[in-house]
Amino acid sequence: MSQKSKTSFSRRNFIGTTATAIAGISVIPSHAVAGLGHTPPSDKLNIAGIGIGGKGSVNLRNMPGQNIVALCDVDWDYAQRVFDEYPKARKWKDFRKMLEEQKDIDAVVIATPDHTHTLPAAAAMELGKHVYLQKPLTHSVWESRYLTELAKKTGVVTQMGNEGHSNDTVYEVAEVVQSGCLGDIRDAHVWTNRPIWRQGMPAPTKEVQVPDTLDWDLFIGPAEMRPYNPEYHPWIWRGWWDFGTGALGDMGCHLLDVPNYALQLGAPTAFQASSSLVNTESAPVSAQVTYKFPARKNLPYCALPEVNLTWYDGGLMPARPFHLPVDAPMNPGGGFMLVGEKAILIAESYGANWKVYKNGEEIVPETKVKLERIPDAEEGGGRHEMHFVNCCKNGGKPASRFEYAGPFNEMVVMGNLAVRMQSLQKTLLWDSENMKVTNISPGEKLSTTKLTPFSSDVVTLDVERQSKETVRWNAQEKCEEWIKHTYKNGWKLA
């Protein structure tokens, strides 16, 4: 089937259906939306998986006791083991056909590549279906804002798949911070050793036959069409700008989560980045991004002054404070450090193995704040996933609902904007309300490197000219495009 025929599938009917659904559910409270009449409270939820070959299969498995009624993936070979696991579920390749034709779906679990998160999530929400969406929530800042507002409008239950946000250690660290045990925190540092896949690469040029089981047109979705190559699918798509969000998008929603939650960061007012070579096709091998957050409203036991937060990936690490004991652990695989005027807290992802140091010694802080924990899941279930399921069936607000996850994800993917625009050699000033960088002039130029694919047939001493060239773009136009992508190939939000 041609690209044109696929992307134009029932578009008028589909959009009409979703528009009718919006009108129908806008006046219904969220607890009444649950199940759309298919699932009464405390009964089983009818769930569809979209993008099931990788993380999606884990999420579905972590929702035991529910009805998995539909499975959708563009690559049926990659998804075959999941089809075998749920033999009664209907199989689909195109989520639009699934949502239009299969009427018994209450909720969807979406774990597609980043660039195709928003389209199925929005379509499902517009039909009144609850949405569990993998991290990063979206590919762009604008998409995050769109889903946040759509969740509020439709009243469906939502959850971002940063599963560790339901761990007890998230709330333990927040209690330490919000009890004032560290004093005023003006610097925070977060790091990861990722990427563990290839980045900083030119696009492959070798033509490879598309596997019979893969619908490459549907994989490309709203991105620019390009020839299939196993460098893009499966999983390794994460490092390519058109499909993924690099190490920051992969790990940021994990490692930045506790600093964001505990410090109630909100939107930054400025950000900047430096990195290894930036190219037109893929994220750099390593990067450092610094965000500036304004002072927030003080908490009862804790002031929230202006704070700088710095992200490091590709093996980069923050400097160790000199007064830390030599055995204070800073796991190079990933972690964070909150530097307070009284003490320093160091932890791993989602606050695991957190420790507090004061005057060069480890201490046990006394907390004054008690935050509610996420309930344990039934045996075999994931706490984060089952929290979502229970809220769908019985009412309630998941821990990482889009009200929280949307603004948080804006900050995460905004870091890639700084990485891609660093040739401007300036701190970017951010107007969050209008999703706009305010200090780029209309005629300003942005420089990026285009790498020449390696060929063993080329032998030259002029390596610099042979391997790369400089591409110049209008900085303002590119910035706007990266904040709000132009969907290609006929795709659009209804």
UniProtKB/TrEMBL annotation:
SUPFAM superfamilies on file: Glyceraldehyde-3-phosphate dehydrogenase-like, C-terminal domain, NAD(P)-binding Rossmann-fold domains
Protein name as catalogued: Predicted dehydrogenase
Sample GO molecular function, one term: nucleotide binding
Domain Gfo/Idh/MocA-like oxidoreductase bacterial type C-terminal: 170-264
InterPro entries listed in its UniProt record: Gfo/Idh/MocA-like_OxRdtase_N, Gfo/Idh/MocA_oxidrdct_glycsds, Gfo/Idh/MocA_OxRdtase_bact_C, NAD(P)-bd_dom_sf, TAT_signal
Stretches assigned to the Gfo/Idh/MocA-like oxidoreductase N-terminal domain: 47-161
